[in-house]
Write a sequence for this structure.
């Protein structure tokens, strides 16, 4: 008997391997669609149309088309943080990282409302929107992304971000920073301030430094990049440092926390920063990536904890604090999973599966996630770190021995291939999330 | 159904006192300091991240907001971590010249565990605070101390408040570069690397002790301490390492 069980579970694992995450969906969609086609199988409101929310909306519909799904997202076009560093470097146009909601509406029958979700009443199960509407839900899924902690760094508020952009949400902020880079004279300094953990996209600042260096090397080769960091080590540090040395010599200088790298004050008008121990630095282009927290609607829903992030049940991504509210993506405490678009997409599928299962009254399967963070040191030189995650003792753990880091001594050919894989990854996840065909 | 509720209630009565008793009393390093006293479990606040992405430098703040009798002030404060190889993290000797107890530092946590703060007044009263921290090395992150740093002190740093006003409490920060070798770590050949720590930071004002921080293996590399003062002249900051070397800064 136990042998048979093992056989079954190992063959199921094989099957899962073949089909990817989609296969964690309970096989009820066909019955639900035909059996109870007229009545709604339940109402889901999804807030946030980024990697987590758009994916969840689509996969709930794929899991059971009879569920009524409404996606609330203020913007008609969503610009991704992944690949926005290529826009900064002038290697891509902003349009090429913009995605819309046509497929979700036309193919999957998701109702899309372009408004801002302003408040949530978790008792009445109602969301109120900026356009005066209110939406009733049975299950709510939040993918609110991040908000900046304004004034966590003295002098850095919303107004200051117009002068010293964070560009940590892609779109207009990306363009402000691009303009500052374009306005730099040869020999000027670009300064980036990086916060302590946790923050969105751990390798992102270092990829940004790389691609800005790629731009400066071609157009303003005597310029400098100064990274002022609130940490003593960072993602893929060895690979980045070696790549910088090989491609940009000493153009990029990294100042760690213990070398007085933490920025505590910003004078955005003068593009000047002051560090913990009183060192002042002046920039021609100033990029402040401030400390972050879950998007504000998570606070309104009452799902954040004292850290400002959202604790979730890792099997379902349902809030541990408020019933029937699921939260995915950067807003959650899902460590060791990183705050990445890839992770948000995978979590969106897990939450979608849990919601479909809950409406059907069945238990969701234990999830397994993968994540890869590609970073470009230049458009033809890519590095990556990959991990596989699962749940053990009610906590997410990284599976030991799975995944890995690009080899330190890989050839240029391999780096070129990884840069191509990064583009392949971007195209694939854009199609999976928004249906964008690139 | 009602029976189940009743059973749960009775069970909770049984379990509750056990939990209260079991908590810190099981932690020898803490029990040793508290002995048979009863610490006050409010008034002392410990601020730590619930989840730390990097156990090698976890920011910690401890604040005292309890009520004190006349002529009573906090003189000692210990930070302890029960599942570190050595539970001692950092401790402070505090004078009356400290206008308010709000101390910040960075600590090492080898794994997920409960961190404790214990404060003692000159009248012998004790206050206890605790917080659980989950340590996880986040995906796309790397952790670990700098293995190449020299084991000597360098770059003593002091930052006074930007516009200090005598009589107004304001925070000042200190840091010194040093790898804080724990003695628990192996080199590439598998040999234990000898312990090398900065032992203490002593702050004096006009030769009167203000505050002393004693560092242990649970203190992060490059020991960082921030605290509040309301007099900012004639200050001396002296760091001493285990070899007896001393570096001083005057302000």
């Amino acid at each position: 008997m136990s042998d048979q069980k093992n056989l079954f579970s190992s063959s199921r694992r094989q099957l899962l391997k073949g089909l990817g995450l989609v296969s964690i969906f309970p096989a009820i969609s066909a019955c639900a669609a035909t059996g109870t086609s007229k009545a709604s199988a339940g109402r889901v409101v999804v807030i946030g149309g980024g990697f987590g929310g758009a994916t969840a909306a689509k996969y709930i519909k794929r899991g059971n088309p009879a569920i009524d799904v409404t996606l609330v997202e203020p913007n008609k076009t969503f610009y991704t943080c992944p690949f926005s560093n290529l826009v900064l470097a002038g290697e891509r146009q902003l349009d090429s990282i913009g995605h819309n909601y046509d497929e979700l509406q036309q193919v999957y029958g998701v109702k899309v409302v372009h408004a801002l979700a302003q408040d949530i009443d978790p008792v009445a199960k109602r969301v109120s929107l900026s356009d005066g509407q209110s939406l009733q839900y049975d299950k709510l899924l939040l993918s609110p992304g991040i908000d900046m902690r304004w004034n966590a760094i003295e002098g850095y508020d919303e107004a200051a971000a117009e002068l010293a952009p964070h560009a940590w949400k892609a779109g207009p902020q990306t363009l402000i920073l691009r303009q500052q880079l374009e306005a730099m004279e040869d020999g000027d300094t670009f300064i980036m301030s990086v916060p302590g953990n946790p923050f969105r996209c751990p390798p992102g600042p270092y990829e940004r430094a790389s691609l800005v260096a790629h731009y400066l090397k071609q157009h303003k080769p005597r310029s400098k990049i100064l990274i002022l960091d609130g940490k003593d080590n960072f993602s893929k540090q060895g690979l980045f440092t070696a790549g910088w040395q090989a491609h940009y010599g000493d153009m990029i200088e990294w100042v760690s926390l213990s070398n007085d790298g933490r920025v505590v004050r910003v004078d955005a008008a003068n593009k000047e920063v002051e560090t913990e121990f009183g060192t002042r630095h002046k920039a021609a282009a100033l990029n402040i990536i401030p400390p972050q927290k879950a998007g504000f609607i998570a606070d309104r829903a009452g799902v954040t904890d004292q850290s400002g992030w959202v604790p979730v049940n890792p099997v379902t991504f349902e809030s541990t604090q408020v019933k029937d509210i699921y939260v995915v993506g950067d807003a959650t405490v899902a460590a060791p999973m990183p705050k990445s678009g890839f992770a948000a997409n995978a979590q969106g599928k897990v939450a979608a599966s849990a919601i479909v299962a809950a409406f059907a009254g069945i238990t969701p399967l234990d999830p397994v996630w993968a994540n890869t963070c590609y970073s470009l040191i230049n458009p033809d030189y890519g590095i990556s770190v990959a991990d596989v995650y699962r749940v053990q003792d009610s906590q997410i753990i990284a599976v030991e021995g799975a995944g890995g880091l690009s080899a330190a001594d890989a050839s240029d050919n391999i780096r070129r291939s990884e840069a191509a894989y990064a583009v392949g990854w971007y195209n694939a996840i854009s199609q999976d999330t928004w249906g964008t065909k690139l | 159904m009602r029976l189940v509720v009743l059973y749960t209630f009775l069970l909770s009565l049984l379990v509750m006192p056990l939990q209260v008793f079991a908590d810190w009393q099981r932690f020898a390093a803490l029990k040793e300091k508290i002995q048979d006293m009863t610490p006050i479990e409010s008034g002392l606040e410990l601020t730590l991240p619930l989840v730390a992405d990097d156990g090698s430098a976890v920011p910690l703040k401890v604040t005292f907001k309890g009520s004190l009798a006349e002529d009573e002030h906090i003189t000692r404060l210990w930070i302890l971590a029960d599942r570190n190889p050595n539970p001692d993290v950092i401790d402070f000797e505090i004078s009356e010249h400290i206008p308010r107890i709000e101390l910040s530092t960075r600590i090492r946590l080898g794994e997920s565990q409960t961190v404790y703060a214990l404060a003692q007044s000159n009248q012998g009263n004790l206050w206890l605070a605790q917080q659980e921290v989950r340590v996880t090395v986040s995906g796309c992150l790397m952790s670990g101390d700098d293995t190449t740093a020299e084991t000597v002190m360098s770059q003593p740093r002091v930052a006074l408040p930007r516009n200090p006003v005598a009589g107004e409490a304001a925070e000042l920060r200190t840091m010194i570069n040093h790898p804080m070798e724990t003695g628990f770590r192996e080199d590439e050949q598998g040999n234990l690397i000898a312990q090398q720590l900065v032992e203490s930071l002593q702050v004096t004002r006009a030769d009167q002790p203000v505050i002393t921080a004693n560092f242990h293996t649970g203190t992060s590399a490059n020991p960082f301490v921030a605290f509040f003062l309301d007099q900012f002249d004639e200050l001396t900051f002296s760091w001493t390492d285990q070899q007896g070397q001393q570096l001083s800064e005057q302000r």
In short: Residues 2-25 of chain B form the longest helix (24 residues). The longest strand of chain B covers residues 126-135. The interface with chain A takes residues 49-54, 56-57, 59, 134, 136-146, 155, 157-159, 173, 175, 177, 221-222 of chain B (CB under 8 Å). Chain B has one domain: 22-138+151-185+192-250.
